[in-house]
Amino acid sequence: MRFEELLEKKEAKQIYLIKQLIIAGGQMNVHNVSKILELSKKSTDNYIEELMVDLKPFQGRCQITYDGTKVAFSKTADFSIEEFERKLYLNSSKYQILLHLLEEKEIHPVRLSQELKISESSLSRKIKDVNQLLKEFDIRIWQGKIMGEESQIRYFYFQLLWYLGQGYEKSSSRETHIIESLERGLNLSFMPVARQRILLWLRITKKRMTVPNPQFRQFKEKFEPYKKDPLYLKLVPIIRRSFSFYAVEIKEEEMMLHFVFLTGMSVLSQKDFHAYSLQRSRLTPTAWCDTIILETILRMYNPQNIRKELEATCYYHLSQIHLRLYFFVGDVETYDRNNIWQLEETLSTRNIQAYVERLMELSAEELQVQTHKQNSLWAMTAIKYLSVLTIIDIRVNREVRVGIYLEFDELFKEAATNMLMLQLKSLNGVVVEPFDDTKEYDLVITNTNLATNTTVYRMTELGSDYDLKEIKKLTRKV
């Protein structure tokens, strides 16, 4: 689910336009803006004027200017467009419907339509729209209540509220006591951000654990291999004691959910995970998948080139990825995937996308989960695998040494060499310098015949994208 889907079309287009202006360097011709918005020139004029009004509360920090020909975006250094986005999201009717369901357990149509200042028929249409968003999480609103596996409902609300920065304000004394009990009982040390995540999870739990007859069937089946996990066995009595003040029976599934949350939702530090990983069974579906994927990655890069601390970092991140992939479906997307892949293509000397696809296929097979390319959890898993590989790609001891040998007048030669060095230095693992015949290189870039035993690339047109692409291909091969 992309956050923009919480908004009405007009609001989503506002955010899209601002981001396009940023990508374009802060300024665009109005005709290009009309194409982006798919509006006539007159409608575009009105649209821009409305956006300028909507940005007025941020005046001086963020603004749109328009002279009838060009549209320009500007902001102060301390302003993030997320401030404007978050305001739109929190005021959106779809978000308010979801929040109402969390707080009240069911929709009260008359009251909610009055709060949102819309008719009951409009509320009904918006609930249908919300159900489209919930579909990939395998949950839905039915007869005024949110239906589906309880694990999926809580996971959805955690993702939604976390990324909107809601629900983890200052903790109460009782909440602080629970968090400290977890630390003492499990011998863990939570970082401040982990404490915030736990606090949000506890508050969602408190609102949902009193719902009658929650569904846990699929989740419980999947959890079966983890019932003997040493961390889980320690967690059970802590949760029972900590939640004893609730006037409800503490179900076994509550402990299961807390275990998955602690181990799979970026709560454990890498140090704490390392200590836990020495005790956990390597035969659970996710632990086995962690090992298989890590070994595959090591073979991609040659194990001798990867230090143990880098290997441990990757193992930690993979454990988070696979637990979510095994127990949940759906995700909340906050990044532009296309931009991330384009950036990878620009910076990497390897075809990491092919590696990512291989890892995706392998993890689906090992975890026995269905691949849904349109599901955002799968899309974000690909980005996470990309991130793991990028960490290795940047830090692994793998250098491609490139020398530049150009025959021009001295002034132009120095300028052209510096320009090429600037372009190539952004490639991960590439060390580039002016050619020195006393040194050895993996690749030499030149514009003339050069007698050398190493791989040579002759420029076709200085500064061309074609040459840069071909040079990147060669750096992957040498």
From TrEMBL:
Gene3D superfamilies: Winged helix-like DNA-binding domain superfamily/Winged helix DNA-binding domain (1.10.10.10). Residues 78-160 form the Mga helix-turn-helix domain. InterPro entries: BglG_antiterminators, Mga_HTH, WH-like_DNA-bd_sf. It comes from the Bacteria. It holds the Pfam family Mga. Keywords: Transcription, Transcription regulation. PANTHER family: CRYPTIC BETA-GLUCOSIDE BGL OPERON ANTITERMINATOR (PTHR30185), TRANSCRIPTIONAL REGULATOR MTLR (PTHR30185:SF18). This is Helix-turn-helix domain-containing protein.
